[in-house]
Design a protein that fits this description.
337 residues; alpha/beta; 6-stranded antiparallel β-sheet; Methionyl-tRNA Fmet Formyltransferase, Chain A, domain 2; elongated
């Protein structure tokens, strides 16, 4: 009977947990260690917490390594001491050095939440939502020294419906990734499943998100901003500065302008029989029924669920009742905290 390959898993975030869960119970491999990000402060209290993968692994009494820098000689030596014959990586957060990639005889496999070569890099899930992609998925690839450039072993295609938030899509893709690994790993280990070079055409590269990316720019169109609201959850969020403080938008919808009414349409188009108003209302919070809408480049963005700084999440109607002065105010670009 062929010995099960000694396997080390590298991962940190929530996306990686279902994949590790599968790997830990896969009879075809021997999971000998987990490498993850070190514990870091998290939450309002700043309490130091392990990564989601670290917490899961320690609860199962697995050997865990959590180096600050995987490129350091000590970190490379410690991983090498596990004598890995296979590496599996998902949502780890650091570049894997060539010395480690060369260790396992079965190679290093990465599960990436996009259909490579589209959306390489750090933020493929927000990028797919922002782009309005009709399809996403997971790619199982053999790692090389490039950034998500290695040959493709298998892919799982997942339709997008234009309503997913980033956390929702991450959860769906993480389960798809675990299933993809389950049906593919045996064939990879026996040489029955080849790795195919990525196509040159269609390659795109995503970048890490910054806090300032979450600022809502009213000069953009409503469809783009609605996608931003879904893509940038939970961080950096989508927010605007108001006279009452920072307003975070959790749910929104493009507002199609129809016949003038007593609400936002009146303000944007003028009363019946009149031409469009001369005032530029872009960036103004407008009444929308009992709630609020934001005037943007091509009309308005209906604010469905919001949160004012220091408060709780609520409907914009509830916010408007508590802060009626928001109606008619303009959002600004105050310094980001």
């Amino acid at each position: 009977m062929t010995a099960r390959p000694r396997t080390v898993f590298l991962g940190s975030g929530r996306f990686a947990v279902p994949i590790l869960d599968h790997l830990a119970t896969d009879a075809g491999v021997e999971l000998v260690g987990v490498v993850t990000a070190p514990p870091r402060p998290a939450g309002r209290g700043g309490m130091v917490r392990p990564s989601p993968v670290g917490a899961w692994a320690r609860s199962r009494w697995l050997a865990v390594q959590a180096p600050d820098r995987l490129r350091d000689e000590q970190a490379i030596a410690e991983l090498g001491s596990l004598e890995p014959e296979l590496l599996v990586l998902a949502d780890y957060g650091q570049i894997v050095p060539a010395e480690i990639l060369a260790m396992p005889r079965h190679g290093a496999l990465n599960l990436h939440p996009s259909l490579l070569p589209r959306h390489r890099g750090a933020t493929p899930i927000p990028a797919a939502i922002l782009a309005g992609d009709e399809e996403s998925g997971v790619t199982l690839m053999r790692m090389d020294e490039g950034l998500d450039t290695g040959p493709i072993v298998a892919q799982s295609h997942q339709p997008l419906w234009g309503q997913e938030t980033a956390p929702e899509l991450e959860e769906r893709l993480s389960l798809a990734a675990a299933a993809l690994l389950s049906v593919t790993l045996g064939g990879w280990l026996t040489g029955k499943v080849p790795a195919v070079p990525q196509p040159v055409e269609g390659a795109t590269l995503t970048r890490p998100l910054r806090r300032r990316d979450g600022r809502i720019d009213p000069q953009l169109d409503a469809v783009t901003l609605e996608r931003q609201v879904r893509a940038y959850q939970p961080w950096p969020g989508s927010f605007a500065e108001t006279p009452e403080g920072r307003l975070v938008v959790w749910r929104a919808a493009p507002l199609a302008l129809g016949p003038p009414t007593d609400g936002v349409n009146d303000l944007l188009t003028g009363p019946p029989g009149a031409g469009a108003g001369e005032a530029d209302l872009t960036g103004t919070l407008l009444p929308d029924g009992d709630g609020l809408a934001l005037a943007v480049a091509d009309g308005a963005l209906r604010l469905l669920e919001v949160q004012l700084a220091g408060g709780r999440r609520m409907s914009s109607a509830d916010l408007r009742r508590g802060h009626p002065g928001l109606v008619g105010s303009r959002v600004g670009s105050a310094a980001l905290g």
